[in-house]
């Protein structure tokens, strides 16, 4: 039982450490838009909801905030997408380097349920 507690504590510590590094490397959109000059040219990753699609440009919403993205993606309005690109402060836009639709899968929920079931058995 002590080994289990130590392993869970170590995993939680790694999670907190990774979260703080990720937040600094890929800031939330509100922080990005409040100080755009600081993040000009930075490579960012984010998950967003497509709001409108135009040739060579599309609008997304991230945490309730709008953002224009220059590039092409095979997504329709209302779909979730994962985006990676370069932030341009003057245009307040993301220049897309890669993007894809987000497909929901039950595997993480099933893995968690299986792990909890195994923990509760003992």
Report on this structure.
The protein is of the alpha+beta class and 122 residues long. It is built from three helices and five strands. The model has no long low-confidence stretch (mean pLDDT 81).
Helix percent reads: 25-40%
Helical/strand content category: alpha+beta
The global form is elongated
Strand content is: 25-35%
* Separate helix tally: 3
Summarize the helix and strand pattern as letters: HHEEEEEH
Global Rg: 19 Å
What would you say about this model in short?
This protein is α+β, with helices and mostly antiparallel strands and 122 residues long. It has helices spanning 2-25, 29-34, 107-121; strands at 43-54, 57-62, 65-70, 80-88, 93-101.
Which secondary structure elements does this structure contain, and how are they paired or packed?
Blueprint (H helix, E strand, L loop, with lengths): L1 H24 L3 H6 L8 E12 L2 E6 L2 E6 L9 E9 L4 E9 L5 H15 L1
Parallel strand pairs: 3-5
Antiparallel strand pairs: 1-2, 1-4, 2-3, 4-5
């Amino acid at each position: 039982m002590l080994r289990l507690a130590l392993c869970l504590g170590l995993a939680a510590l790694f999670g907190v450490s990774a979260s703080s590094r990720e937040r600094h490397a890929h800031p939330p959109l509100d922080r990005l838009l409040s100080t755009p000059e600081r993040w000009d040219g930075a490579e960012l990753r984010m998950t967003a909801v497509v709001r409108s699609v135009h040739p060579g440009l599309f609008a997304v919403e991230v945490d309730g905030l709008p953002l224009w993205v220059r590039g092409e993606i095979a997504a329709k309005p209302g779909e979730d997408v994962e985006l990676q690109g370069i932030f341009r402060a003057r245009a307040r836009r993301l220049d897309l380097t890669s993007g894809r639709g987000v497909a929901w899968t039950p595997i993480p929920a099933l893995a968690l349920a299986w792990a909890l079931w195994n923990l509760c058995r003992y």
